[in-house]
Amino acid sequence: MTISSSLNAGVAGLAANATQLATISDNIANSSTYGYKRAEADFHSMVIDGGSGSYSAGGVRVTTNRLIDESGALVTTSNSTDLAVRGDGFLPVTTESDVGTDNGEEAMYLTTTGSFRTDEDGILKTESGLVLLGWPAEADGTVPEYPRDTADGLEPVQINVNQFAGEPTENISLGMNLPATETEYGGTGDSLTLPIEYLDNLGTSQSLTITFTPSVSATIGDATNTWSMSISDSATPGEVIAAYDLVFADDRDYGGTLESVTHDAATETIDDIDATKTSSYDAATGILRVYVDGGPIDIDIGAQHDSAGMTQLSDSFAPTSISKDGSPVGIMTSVEVDANGYVIANFDIGISRVVYQIPLISMSNPNGLTSLDNQTYQISSESGSFYLWDAGDGATGDIVSYALEESSVDVANELTNLIHTQRAYSSNAKVIQTVDEMLQETTNIKR
């Protein structure tokens, strides 16, 4: 009956507008919630074919969805581990309860922003219990290759604020001048020594002692321009770990620069040098590699005919420039996250080290994700399969630290929709009231 279908349509309209009112209420309530994604209600008409000469109202039905792919504005904060995604992609997180089970199988959830701080165990998490996930780096700061289509390699980001770290010396640049007069006839033949500090693998100070011994000419008015150079290591006292014969040019074009460097293996006295560890000299780069107790160190003495390296001029013995890498042991002072998702620990000795990498997750249909509490989402069949990207690569944006993402809700727009919804609800109620009056008139008809 047509009048009955009108009543059903009015009831359907009330229910549909009540649902829209619920989404508007949720949006307005979360207008200040960081990372909140706006929900909306979509109305769909229902058509019932009543046949020729009659019409039946089908009414309306409503579906709701959350616009997860809409991004809110970013606001700056004072916390380096307040993170927000700028562009597409999601941060991987898990829950505090999953980490507490300690079974190594934390469930992965997604979010676009979070204010993460270390707890008593150094784990980065939010006040609502979301724990940040990332790939752990090796001791040298490199991040291994992890599978990108699974969360198996991810683990809670844990920062040891009392962590100590140091860097061993691996490269030394040696610029110095040897006195040319010492290789002339009548030279003293005295050895010259130069100690150079380096840091071993444990951050302990050690030293290399480089001894230069001139080869004195036996001919009056002549000079050999030749020196023997031996290197000893304080970690293995009494042993010569490397020895070389240095010859300097004396022509007009390259006078005073290195002409040749020959490895003198016979002079070396260290017992445990591996036969494959030859302390040879590379004339193109100017680097000779020596093996101290903790491993190799590359010493740059200057390439052939390079005046910036080791020279033999005049009558003075003087280091002109000595530089080296490595650092003593220091304590961690702060943590930062860069745009590519690398979690960087800063130490009070001035060094920085990568400790984790946070990937960004993408999928074909973000709006198909399952919405959960605390602005988190979960992969579903409708969202499609996911992939873990390096932040800034592929289909993802980058990570912004010292920032949080605001809600995507426009309050002015929601209030406008609220007015429309109220009017529509009142109109549907009026339809029901009218149908009721019409039915009342029908029952009042007397025979």
UniProtKB/TrEMBL annotation:
<comment type="similarity">
    <text>Belongs to the flagella basal body rod proteins family.</text>
</comment>
<keyword id="KW-0969">Cilium</keyword>
<dbReference type="GO" id="GO:0009425">
    <property type="term" value="C:bacterial-type flagellum basal body"/>
</dbReference>
<dbReference type="InterPro" id="IPR037925">
    <property type="entry name" value="FlgE/F/G-like"/>
</dbReference>
<comment type="function">
    <text>A flexible structure which links the flagellar filament to the drive apparatus in the basal body.</text>
</comment>
<dbReference type="InterPro" id="IPR020013">
    <property type="entry name" value="Flagellar_FlgE/F/G"/>
</dbReference>
<feature type="domain" description="Flagellar basal body rod protein N-terminal">
    <location>
        <begin position="7"/>
        <end position="37"/>
    </location>
</feature>
<dbReference type="Pfam" id="PF06429">
    <property type="entry name" value="Flg_bbr_C"/>
</dbReference>
<dbReference type="InterPro" id="IPR001444">
    <property type="entry name" value="Flag_bb_rod_N"/>
</dbReference>
<feature type="domain" description="Flagellar basal-body/hook protein C-terminal">
    <location>
        <begin position="402"/>
        <end position="445"/>
    </location>
</feature>
<dbReference type="GO" id="GO:0071978">
    <property type="term" value="P:bacterial-type flagellum-dependent swarming motility"/>
</dbReference>
<protein>
    <recommendedName>
        <fullName>Flagellar hook protein FlgE</fullName>
    </recommendedName>
</protein>
<dbReference type="GO" id="GO:0005829">
    <property type="term" value="C:cytosol"/>
</dbReference>
<dbReference type="InterPro" id="IPR019776">
    <property type="entry name" value="Flagellar_basal_body_rod_CS"/>
</dbReference>
<keyword id="KW-0282">Flagellum</keyword>
<dbReference type="InterPro" id="IPR010930">
    <property type="entry name" value="Flg_bb/hook_C_dom"/>
</dbReference>
<keyword id="KW-0966">Cell projection</keyword>
<dbReference type="GO" id="GO:0009424">
    <property type="term" value="C:bacterial-type flagellum hook"/>
</dbReference>
<keyword id="KW-0975">Bacterial flagellum</keyword>
<dbReference type="Pfam" id="PF00460">
    <property type="entry name" value="Flg_bb_rod"/>
</dbReference>
